[in-house]
Amino acid sequence: MKFYRTLQPFQVISFDLDDTLYDNSQVMIKAESEFLAFLRQYDGVQGVTYAEWVFWKETIGRENPLLQENVTAWRTQSLQALLAKRQKSAVDISAISEKAMSYFLHWRHQIDVPTKSFEILQQLKQHYKLVAMTNGNVEPARIGFHHFDLTLRGGEHGRAKPHEDLFRQTARHFNISPHQLLHVGDNLQTDVQGAIQAGCQAVWLNLTQKHIYQFSDARLLPTVEMSDLSALLSLHC
Prior knowledge:
By secondary structure, the protein is an alpha/beta fold. 39% of the residues lie in helices and 12% in strands. It has helices at 25-39, 50-63, 71-85, 90-108, 115-125, 165-173, 188-197, and strands at residues 2-3, 12-15, 129-134, 150-153, 181-185, 201-205, 224-226. It holds the Pfam family Hydrolase.
């Protein structure tokens, strides 16, 4: 564990979800694969490729950059644009997109959460208020997390990290000063930079064993760097 800043007393701990409390990489690969397989069952969409899907997602994202902060809405609108290009009717577009998104979200939540993550949160919950703060679309309760006093998703509940919106909302919700919020995450930009810019404290979970200065997105130093989530249990302020 490395300290880059003086750790101040905190009352609330917020957690990024994907790749912080569990490994998300293979989950998304599987969910994307199942999503496209589901689409290919429909007439006129059988030949849809991953490249075509990415094209429409990137196109819709460029047309509306803020939409990208709400990953569910972004995916939905991208799918609807793809289906319209495939000359599906408005009725079909509505029905297919609703079913496909439900199917995708099912696979999106097929996450193997380490038992250790549950145990750590359970211990921390005895001393602190806990928050899930994510730029993704996971619903914590669907994957077994019942520890959070508040859940905020970027784009849905406010501007996505690293914007200060979710951090400030959390501080207001618990009636604390921003520095009394300790945010834990794996991403040096969305998590660390976002938290520090909002006046909060930040734990960078570095699972790579690489030095922080080897990361091009290291704009601001975290308060603390740790390589294992269990090290949180030794932080007492």
